[in-house]
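Re-running Molybdopterin oxidoreductase to confirm reproducibility after the cluster update. Everything else is unchanged from the original entry.
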Amino acid sequence: MPRQILAEYSDDDARFDEMFAARGEPRPHYGALYERLLKQTAPQLRELFDDVDRQIRNNGVTYNVYDDEEGAGRPWAMDPLPLIIPAAEWAGVERGVAQRAKLLNSLLADFYGPQTLFQKGRLPPALILGHPGFQRPAFGITPPGGVFLHVLAVDLARSPDGQWWVINDRSQSPSGMGYALENRLITSRLFPDLFCELRVTRLANFFAALRDAIATYAPRDEGRTNTVVLTPGPYNETYFEHAYLARYLGFPLVEGQDLIVRDGCVWLKTLSGLRRVHAILRRMDDDFCDPLELRADSVLGVPGLMDVVRRGNVLLANGIGASVIETGALAGFLPGLCQHLLGEEMLMPSVATWWCGEGPVMEDALAKADHLVFRSAVPHPQGRRVEPVFGEDLDEDGLVRLAARVRANPRDWYAQELVALSRAPLLDRGHGRKLLGRPVGLRVYAVATPEGYMVMPGGLARTASERDVRILSNQRGGGSKDVWICGSAVASSVSLLRRPVDAADLVRSGSGLSSRVAENLFWFGRYAERCDNLARYLRVTLNRLSDSLDNPGEWKALSALGRTIGLLPEDCNEREAVRPLLRATFDAQHHGGLASHVLHLSRTGFQLRERLSLDNWRTLNALAQQIGSKPFERVGIFEALAQLDEYITSFMTLAGFALDGMTRDHGWRFLSLGRRIERLQFQTEAIEAAMKMGVRGNPEWLLEVSDSIVTYRARYMARPEWIAVLDLLIADDTNPRGIVFQTTGLCDYIERFNASLGDMPDCGLEALHRRLLALDPGLDFHPGSQALSEALGTLRTAAASLSDQISVHYFSHAEERARVIA
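Result of re-run:
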């Protein structure tokens, strides 16, 4: 049995093996996991991948690899087997990382303060002051508590003798904490009994410390401390993590456009006005944070943010300019700086490093270049990746060219010893009964607290997909693992609530909702309803075309509606209609088609990631994954009808989540406003198109498109008649597809908004609602009614006008509405 599972497991004495002390002999802390694997059959082990894939897909865990065809929808890559580290060994890692964080924070305090290290010759000024990460606008700013570095990520690698070494520091906006948390949730569900048996340390304490520390260091006023997570937006490679952390920590997720600077403070634009922001956990690079003082062409940041930070009126975590310590060229100076600043020996060393900005050091590095890796000491302009140069890959001419490049710009280069990354077991996805030995590195996180730096018990293990990979990177297609720190005392259950909620903290309205989120909810409602309308029209029309239409008037009406909603071209006859309808169903490139709008719905939902339930998100994910799965040219009518049935079921599910799973606050009202406006417009268009059939036409298809056929049959048990159909679809205020039902709800929402958010200009909807109620069914509910036709047309125009007014009044935050709230 061990022979089979290790058949593809490589023997490599140049690498430390995380799992095995010798071939087939697991280390003590891996023994229980290895025994579990030996007892599993190949199908059982393959099920682990199925479980991982299902949870990643259902939870929408994504990582955007730039230039990848999957883009922002690329699923997160994770191996089911955890990286296991004994608690006794971890204690040393923890002390080393905490000390390093303290040292780096002291360096930032000196760089942006007295700069004594330069004056005393401890550091060459060019190394720091010439680095693009040194932000001059941040000079002289002392943050609360003297904490420049609230969160630090340290990349570790293990050498062949088992020693952990520091490879990189990530200080600007360290990523991966949210993915580490998601990995933990998935892996602990795969091996629940093993998780308890090994006494794995839980992560909740770390995240609770992060939330509490931000509140502690944030400036205070009479109200509650408001913290936000600042993201560049949904196209950032780690946007899933931004939304995930925001939800987990209980902070609003905001973009730069959601914030504004006034009166020396940062404010969040909400529906009811401006709400003070006391702390910002940023996931945005330094340069983009403030176009006034940093990068002038940035459209992502908050104009004036640096001035507020300078005044001490907002906490920025991490502080602007923290990225300067990410340069690997600094590593060679750290042992001496640690002794000078902290009076301590460095507990966890960096890989041996040579900064080429010093002549003798450069020549020493070039003399042994064939054993080193040369890296860029500064970020490359426009963010383009500068590939490291491995001396062992170069011939004699290549080494000469490398030396010339380094001597031309010596300050831009540093050299490091190449560490052979340790090896960890990965399950072979193609053959569940085999283990593969692959390079692994560990990203560890530390957070500043009033008691010192606290280290996450674990972190994010990053793995390579190939055997001889020398650099680990998710952007290069690498994977990940959960990290288990085992053998510790069983931790008690921890809540992220800092203190009990009292009466003053109770919240029962959504007036604090940001304007951008409200706008996204509004359009989420519109897109959801539009998708449902298009799908019902496509299903009815394809059904009619497959069975032959009752009469020419029916096609006249259906084609008119199809042209109005953008699914059919002009002068399209029955024989020519199938192809454009199938294209609208399946082709995402068809602007205005169903597939295109499903993607719009999914993208809008993606921007609401932190507000959607997992059930909501899973339904959206399933919808988006069906798009483009098959070229429309290869699909027949009956397959299309089956697909449309699935779509409509999903749209009904989304509607059910909104109806049954959302509190009736302003967020829900904006979503419902979007749905009702969209439904009102579509229903008026559908009824007007149906009226083109004349009094002899059969309006049964109209009832089907309006999802009212069952109600009609239950009431009348007869062939559809115009007066009864129009009464059901127009005047019946109990029919959720009826027009009066929509206008009643819209009038109610507007009244509620006016009462709590300020009056909006009158769009005339209430008057039109009364006009509709005044219609006489006996006189006006027939296809030839001029009064009915005019009322429907005016209503459709009013719905469009209402949508525009809502956008201007509630989402744009015009100056006259921007009032301050507590």
